[in-house]
Each structure stands twice: as structure tokens, then as C-alpha cells.
Amino acid sequence: MATHKLLLLPGDGIGPEVMREVEKIVGWFRKRGVGFETETDLVGGAAYDAHGVSISEAAMDRAQQADAVLFGAVGGAKWDSVPYAVRPEAGLLRLRKDLGLFANLRPAICYPALADASSLKREVVEGLDIMIVRELTGGVYFGEPKEIVTLEDGSQRAVDTQIYHTHEVERIARVAFDLARKRRNKVSSAEKFNVMKTGVFWRQVVTRIHKGEFSDVELEHVLADNCAMQLVRWPKQFDVIVTDNLFGDILSDIAAMLTGSLGMLPSASLGAEDPVTGQRKALYEPVHGSAPDIAGKGLANPIAMIGSFGMALRYSFGLLDEADRLDKAIANVLASGTRTKDIAAPGANAVGTQDVGDAIVKELEALS
Ligand code: NAD
């Protein structure tokens, strides 16, 4: 039986609380014969307190050796004044950089039971299931020059530089087309080819990869601003949206809000395929932060974290039946009304973090 190596990095604030619920789910699958080997280490403020850095070299080594990293959340007022290089977020950035995680996957799923929690009408969002694939390591956030310069006349000029290389667009396009094949077989590629050279280039490269390797998948090109509008108008027209770092940042937040609470949103970041094993380095994390306002109170919604583990089942371990069962268990628990405060129906009693984890384990049991 294959053993899947998981590194758990709970982090700070509600991170450890929601990670404990994932451990229950891992334990349940383990009892059912799925081989998981877990290690736990420190990241963020917790690592700073113990080691004076936001992630230790030993933890980085473990992350390199793991089949998947599960990351909780980092940060909090306690570490607001630590030196910039060792601030809690630096641990996450180091992981992304050293593991080469160039593809950020953010699903936006609207469970029928939560359709009324969205700011859009029920019929617009109910049953929504889209995936935003954002290029994560290139583009305008990293391009040089990046500066504010003072000119001879005393005025100033600010510059950010959007740069994309062929291989960067090719590899993110392949991730998107691959995913689409396992979903509803459609990719929408968003850029601004009408006003940006990188947009013209993005469109050319995506078209070439489509023609050469994925012509069975439906491809449409959409201007990023129109994509934003369409996401709010009729999001169910989309399956997989692939886009660059900047547009992806914005479009994924719009898509996120279609679904209700931050406590519901998982994400995955994937690296290049290993030429020998075909495995990708991968990190799975909820979209939310360490939520200091509710930390330690047992109020956090663990579904974003548990859903992130579900993505690991699907994308790192190929355990599709197990991932489907976990998704179904989450949907059933939500439909039964067992919900934390952030998503509780008006007037309904909210339950705690552990209750939701327990209910999902019970539902997994009932489904098997
Ligand atoms: P946040 O996501 O931590 O919280 C925003 C709001 O959403 C809060 O009211 C919080 O209570 C609520 N919330 C978040 N997750 C929830 C959950 N699972 N269940 C119920 N409610 C939930 O964002 P913030 O308040 O802007 O940041 C707090 C800290 O987290 C800061 O230090 C920030 O730097 C850090 N942060 C870390 C990450 C990360 O680790 N990836 C991401 C974002 C923010």
C-alpha cells in the first residue's frame, strides 16, 4: 500500500484549531486503510518564538521531502514588530519559493445549503463550482525594475514591470487544461490582449498549447475586466479560469465572495511535475488568515482547512473516491444545519470548531 507523506504546519491563531479537525479526518481515512504518514512542525509566529525564524531549515527539509504540505495560517499582533525578514508571512513565502509553487488553484463552490449566505441571488450561485488557476510566481509582482524614482524636476515616477516568459505561460496553461479534463472540459483564459503586450503573448501561448496538446478541451479567451463582470453576472458559465498573477489575485477574490464565508475557502499551490515520479510539490491551505479575533475560542470554521486536505487527496494523492466522499460529507453536514457562527442560518444555533469536525467524521462513516 502506498504511503502518503503529509507535513502539517498549523501555524498561529486559529491555524492549530482547524488543523486538529483535519487530523481527525486523516485518522479516519487511516483507519480505513489509506496510508498516511504525518509529521508536524512550526511555521510563522510559532516558529519565530521557538527558533527566531519564521520557518526552520529542518521544517523546510521536511517540506521538501513531503508528498504534500498542509498549512494552517500565520500571523498576529504579537509578531507585528518582529524584523521584516522573519515576520510570520515570510515562512509562507519561503515555502512557495523553495517548493517552486507556480500554480495557485482556488475553487469557488457554492453548497446549496449556503446559497443564501452569498451576496448574489440564490439562482446565480446555487450549485456553483468553478476553479481559478492563478500564475503565482511571475508577472507584475516580481518583474524588475520595480521602483519609485525621483526625476530631475523633483517629481517622482513609480514603475512595476509585467514580465512573462514562454515556459511560465506554457506550464500554467497545461495545469489549467489538465484540470479541465477532469472537470467540465472548459478553460477560459483571461488577459488584456487589447492593451497589454503580455496579454497578446499570453493569448498566443495558451492558444498554441491548446492546439498542440489539448484540442479536446473547449477554450475561450476573455478580457480580464469582462471576466470580472461575468463572474458577478452569471458565474456558472465558467469551469476553469486561467490567468496571470495580478488578474488572478483579483478574480479569485471576486469568485471567493460568491460563496459566502472566508471559513469555507480552500486552496492549493502546485509546483512542476517531477520528471521521474510525475509528482508535483504541493501546499494546501485555507484562504483565510489566523483570525486573531476568534482564535482560542473554538469558533473557527474548519471547512476551509478540511477542504484543503480534500484538495490534497485529489491533486497530490489521486484518491478521487476519498476526495468525493469528503466533499459529500461536508455538503451533508452543511445541509443538516451543523454550522459555525460565520455561516449559521439567521436565528439558528451555531456549533463549535470541534463539533463540525466530529460531524464530518460521522458523516464519512455514514457514507461508507
Ligand atoms: P483573517 O482571514 O484572519 O480574518 C478575517 C475575518 O474573517 C475575521 O473576522 C475572522 O474572524 C474571519 N475568519 C477568518 N477565518 C475564519 C474561519 N475559519 N472561521 C470563521 N471566521 C473566520 O484576516 P485578517 O484579520 O486580515 O488577518 C489576521 C492575521 O492573519 C494577520 O496577521 C494577517 O497577516 C494574517 N493572514 C495570514 C494569512 C495566511 O496565513 N495565509 C492570510 C491572510 C491573513
TrEMBL record:
UniProt keyword annotations, A-Z: Amino-acid biosynthesis, Branched-chain amino acid biosynthesis, Cytoplasm, Leucine biosynthesis, Magnesium, Manganese, Metal-binding, NAD, Oxidoreductase
UniProt subcellular location: Cytoplasm
Chain residues that bind substrate: 96, 106, 134, 225
Span of domain Isopropylmalate dehydrogenase-like: 5-360
Pfam families: Iso_dh
SUPFAM superfamilies: Isocitrate/Isopropylmalate dehydrogenase-like (SSF53659)
Protein family (similarity comment): Belongs to the isocitrate and isopropylmalate dehydrogenases family. LeuB type 1 subfamily.
Full protein name: 3-isopropylmalate dehydrogenase
Organism, scientific name: Microvirga lotononidis
